[in-house]
Amino acid sequence: MWTVCKLARRAGLSRTALLYYESIGLMRAPERSNGNYRCYGERDLERLLQIRAYRDAGLGLADIHAILDRPAGDAASVLQRRLMELDGEVRTLREHQAAILKLLSHGSLRRGKMITKQKWVSIMKACGLSDEQMHRWHTEFERSAPEEHEEFLEFLHIPAAEIKTIRDQSRKGF
Question: What's the rounded Cα separation, in Å, for the pair 66 and 74?
Fold first, then answer.
C-alpha cells in the first residue's frame, strides 16, 4: 500500500495531479487507513501508469477517461483520431517554418528596415497563409510565448489598442 505522495512519485507525477485525477473520477477514491490516510494498491499504480502513458501520447483527460472505462477496442479509434490531429498540427508548424524562412530571406528584414503590419500580412499571404492560418499562428504564438508575441506586435508598430484586441482574440482562439 502506498500513500498519495509515494504513489505519485512511483508514477512520476505530482501529488496534486494524482489528487486531481481522483477528483474528476479518473482515479477511483482509495481506501483509507485508520489515520484517514489514502491507501493505494497495485491496481491504482497500474491505472495511474496507463493514464501517464496516454497523457504522454498527448491525449486529453476526457479521451483517457473514455479509453479506460470502455472496452479495449475504443482505444484504437481515440488514438487514431489523435494521430490525425497531430498530423494537422505538424502541417501547420511546417507552414510556419516555411513562412519564417521566406521572411528571413526577405531583404528588408536583413537590412534592419522597419516592417509594418501591412507588409507583414502581405508577406504571410504571399507564403500561402490564409486568414484562418494567420489567426492560428497568432493563437499559437500567444499560447507558447505571450511576451514575445506582444513584443513582435509592437515591432510592427501596431497601436496598443489593436495589440490588446489581437492578443485577446488569440487567447480565445479566435
Answer: 8
Q: Which distant-in-sequence residues (6+ apart) come within 8 Å of 16 by Cβ?
A: none
The domain over range 4-68 is classified in CATH as 3.40.50.2300: no
pLDDT of 147-174, one tens digit each? 888 988 888 889 999 999 999 998 887 5
Nearest-angstrom CA–CA distance, 98 and 127: 7
pTM of the entire predicted model? 0.55
Q: CA nearest 131: which of 121, 119, 145, 116?
A: 121
What does the domain layout of the chain look like in residue ranges?
A: 4-68, 83-172
Alpha helices in the chain (DSSP H): 4-11, 15-23, 42-56, 61-68, 73-105, 107-110, 117-126, 131-144, 146-155, 160-172
